[in-house]
Amino acid sequence: MEKKVRLIKMLLMMLICGSAWISAESTADIDSYRRLMLENGLGATPPMGWNSWNHFFCNIDETTIMETADALVSTGLAELGYKYVNIDDCWAEQERDSEGYLVPNKKTFPSGIKALADYIHSKGLKLGIYSDAGFQTCSNKMPGSLGYEQKDAETFASWGIDYLKYDNCNNNYSEPTKRYPPMSQALIKTGRPIFFSLCEWGEMHPAFWGAKLGNSWRTTTDISDTWDSMISRADQNEAYANFAGPGGWNDPDMLEVGNGGMTHKQYIVHFSLWAISKAPLLIGCDVRDLSNNTYKILGNKEVIDVNQDPLGIQAKKVKKDGDLEVWAGPLSKSRTVVLLLNRSVIRSTISAYWADLGVPADTSMEVRDLWKHKTYDKGFKNQLKFTMEGRSCRMFILTPMS
Ligand code: GLA
Question: What is the per-residue burial (b if ≥16 Cβ within 10 Å, else e) of 89-112?
Fold first, then answer.
């Protein structure tokens, strides 16, 4: 009976979110929705941190991971919320030991993962690791956890792991809805809160079932460091906006900001879209070697605050006129975040009308520009209208002036 009531509440909540903004006052609905999620207490806001894959691929070792942790602290990024230091594929020996345990690669992680976790924790950070719901991981360089879920979960917990990314390669062709639950349950059974990130690439629409198993779920295949790759992942991820919320997030893949394949303005678009989409903010560049421009993007506290807003509602594309788009979503304290996105290559003007945003037309709004760090003092009425260069965006928070 209780289950039925929860289900009805969840459906109601989806209807509300689909048709109009949910107000800050409706957080009670979110709380009931949240009870259907994985109860490990993690992911109240999207996770923030770093992951080795987008920059280093398989070329990782314990020194790089430790230096990255040091850099997160010394640059101030850790203080801004980037707490997870996540090791991706290729950290283990090709074979398990004679008792079936995973073995850290003896050449690249000679001190072992427990020692690394101790180091990371001593810096006030958290350590993430990677495995796969198959026989081998995607690199084919180490075993996956299929059939070894409990053993591996216990190993991770005993090492002090805080986050597990769980990939989808080299499996037995059974459905992910069969292969992901055993690891989800095994992690819970360890008693250690471990953020569970489902990396199923969106194949079987994990947004529909992921919240019961994990704290985030990939909605797309792998990102690469190009405009087309980035923007198409934002689009695919947007389709699932109604399924994200505190405890479980849509994941359009990790950030490429700072890896060199896009212009500064394009990286601003990338970071802005990820922030408003309540995506995990997992830095994918070498933070030991950050340029000022990269730092200005990844370290923009105002944009990070949008991502970490306690309401946890993913913004949506609310208007599209060819390559000119408006994305928007509600924030706590009756505020609205708006992104004017010029996807074309030419300078263009974009208007967002209050009607597009679900705001009464005569509301006078204070407008804060999150990239120029500037507040427009005169109240805006009925619309926002700005001209911007090709492949760039403007990002604002609107606050009603009472
Ligand atoms: C898959 C994942 C990537 C990365 C690689 C590692 O492609 O989607 O994010 O983890 O595997 O091999």
Answer: bbbbbeebeeeeebbbbeebbeee
